[in-house]
Amino acid sequence: MSNQRQQDENSKQKQLEQFSVSDEGKALTTNQGLKVSEDEFSLKAGDRGPTLMEDFHFREKMTHFDHERIPERVVHARGFAAHGEFQVYESMKNYTKAGFLQDPSVKTPVFVRFSTVGGSRGSAETVRDARGFSTKFYTQEGNYDLVGNNIPVFFIQDAIKFPDLVHAIKPEPHHEMPQASTAHDTFWDFIANNQESAHMVMWAMSDRAIPRSLRMMEGFGVHTFRFVNEQGKSHFVKFHWKPVLGVHSLVWDEAQKIAGKDPDFHRRDLWESIDQGNFPEYELGVQLLTEDDEFKFDFDVLDPTKIWPEEEVPVKLIGKMTLNRNVDNVFAETEQVAFHPGHVVPGIDFSNDPLLQGRLFSYTDTQLIRLGGPNFHELPINRPVCPFHNNQRDGYGRQTINKGPVSYHRNSLASNTPAPVPEAEGGYAHYQEKVEGRKVRSRSDSFKDHFSQARLFWNSMSQPEKQHIIQAFSFELGKVMNKDVRQQVVDMFGNVNTKMASEIADNIGANPPQSEESQVTKSSPALSQLHTKMNPATRKVGVIAEHGVDSKELSMILDKLKAEGLQPEIISTKLSPLQGSGESLEVKYTFQTADSVMFDAIYFAGSKENSEPFNEQVRYFIREAFNHKKPIGAAQDGTHLLKEEKLKGQPGVITNEDSKTFVEAFTQAISQHRFWDR
Ligand code: HDE
């Protein structure tokens, strides 16, 4: 490995290490370094007397604690992050001069933060919502942030409406309910009265909004950006992250139950995967358009409520990102990281998408209140790995000690340095797009078709996915109290599909829509999760067993499942090791600490003892897993219970009686994710 390459991939970690501290084994001191002799009792005038003002140790400790909290992000407050690296497959020099996209041997350090959008910092993670997918690339030319979502379009077309949208999504101000949910009046009132949201709402009501894992969802840059190459030629570009494990989701009932059983479900999944060396991977894809093709489509390429269907503009996979290190401290890293779509490097530029243009203002502004001043770029997680010099000075929390008298440009005292760098030598120069027009507050007519792509999305869904969308609308609108709002939404989505809107209307006691449905017949198969990659790797199998089980055979099956990349974990009545015919086996959960919703599949090993309370628990597990369409397996004494429950022979229910190669058949079923045809 060349020195350059080594330096690149470790540069961020080395930088962070300079700020890392281990307190273990050290003497307790004040922040001034004074050793402290007592940390349990404040200084008092007499054993039972008042605390004294002079107790600087007490005051320092308490004051620091009183100031521990910072404002949570106004959106995307609930997030979780990890470190990793990115490597391009081949030079992208024909399209962009971005340094980190040139050399396949260079590994660029990255920091990725995933988030829900609407909920507070402590809210549950499996709620119905878009997920943020923000990546900071620490490149040798400065930080590049790709601040995306797992849904490729957005609710609104102009940034000026963002505060309205977010006010409508957040808990209603008079009673602060509901938390982390769009199932309430103000959200749907906003939707019905801002119909550009139709396409995004279709995605939000689909399975995309309840991902199985942060490792199993796509990411999208949403806006159209620009790539600019060394020759100054520009292409429009849309960014995609494609998860190597495929795109998979929970079912709604399951998602709601997990929100209670394990509100940390997604971060736990990410943390444990990285901890165990199952590093999440995503390929970076780009859709590219020449400037000449800008007006070739029946939508405006600047409109953030539109996708470029992959079948029309193919996604070229250009590199891979691997997340391989958990954070050391969530506050210092995950909470203090500051993303900004305006953090770009030479070779990447903006389009005139009015949503993107507004974001370019908002992100620095929000950090000023959230992180308390203009020096947040000095926080370890936000520092670039390349040097940075300018004439900015002072402000709250300034850490850099800038030497010398000069802090202005132009100067002679420092030979006019720090000096601007010409474009040819790496200085950033904005793409010289020609613009002209009158100052207007308006929306281009080319942004006014709100339903064609919402309809395209609907057309692209499989039957079960369509059913889930109808159920999601019915759930959400069922929680809307105002009947007029319900009806407005039904009428709005009648523009997408009459049958869909009529079924929703029927479920929520509204009238069928009067609107005309879109006549779009096109579909985009890439949008259906039924066409995603099916990969069993890292799937969790809940293995139910009891003392007296044939542990010899069970450990053989466990080994085989592990060899297939699955993660079997034993659930039993007690946590004590499972005794049986062979070696004793470690029990990870009891019926109190586990639930079927925490697993991708259930394997019932059974028990010789076969007590009724035990069987009752097993029936509950299996029934629930069955209702959530999950694979269920039994190859030992467990088979009889599946027969009793009349589950044997159902799709995705695998026993050794049905298949001689049980483990292979069960693994195959697990890779299929869910059995919708039950
Ligand atoms: Fe954001 N968004 N956003 N957003 N956004 C924020 O910045 C904003 C939009 C996205 O993990 C805030 O640091 C405006 C689209 C992610 O730290 C804030 C508009 C997309 C994150 C902000 C949008 C996003 C944010 C709040 C409309 C997908 C989390 C805290 C023009 C492409 C970043 C913060 C993280 C965060 C403003 C729309 C993605 C207030 C004004 C579209 C992933 O600045």
Low-confidence regions: none
The CATH class of the largest domain turns out to be Mainly Beta
Structural Rg: 28 Å
SSE class: alpha/beta
Major sheet characteristics: 10 strands, antiparallel
Strand content: 15-25%
Query: What's the N-to-C terminus distance?
Result: 52 Å
List cofactors, ions and other ligands. Answer: CIS-heme D hydroxychlorin gamma-spirolactone 17R, 18S
The total strand number stands at 16
In total, the number of domains comes to 3
The shape is globular
And the CATH topology of the largest domain?
Catalase HpII,  Chain A, domain 1
Q: CATH superfamily membership of the largest domain, which one?
A: Catalase core domain
Mean pLDDT: 96
CATH architecture of the largest domain: Beta Barrel
**Helix count, DSSP H or I runs of 4 or more residues:** 17
Helix content: 25-40%
InterPro entries: Catalase (IPR018028), Catalase_AS (IPR024708), Catalase_clade2 (IPR024712), Catalase_clade2_helical (IPR043156), Catalase_core (IPR011614), Catalase_haem_BS (IPR002226), Catalase_immune_responsive (IPR010582), Catalase_large_C (IPR041399)
Biased composition (Basic and acidic residues): 1-15
Active site: 76, 149
Domain Catalase core: 29-417
How would you concisely characterize the structure shown here?
The protein is an alpha/beta fold. It has helices at residues 3-17, 56-66, 162-169, 185-193, 198-204, 252-261, 265-275, 331-335, 354-370, 452-460, 463-478, 483-494, 498-508, 551-563, 612-627, 639-644, 662-671; strands at residues 79-88, 108-116, 131-139, 142-149, 219-220, 225-228, 234-243, 281-290, 316-326, 348-350, 540-545, 567-572, 589-590, 601-606, 632-634, 653-655. 27% of the residues lie in helices and 15% in strands.
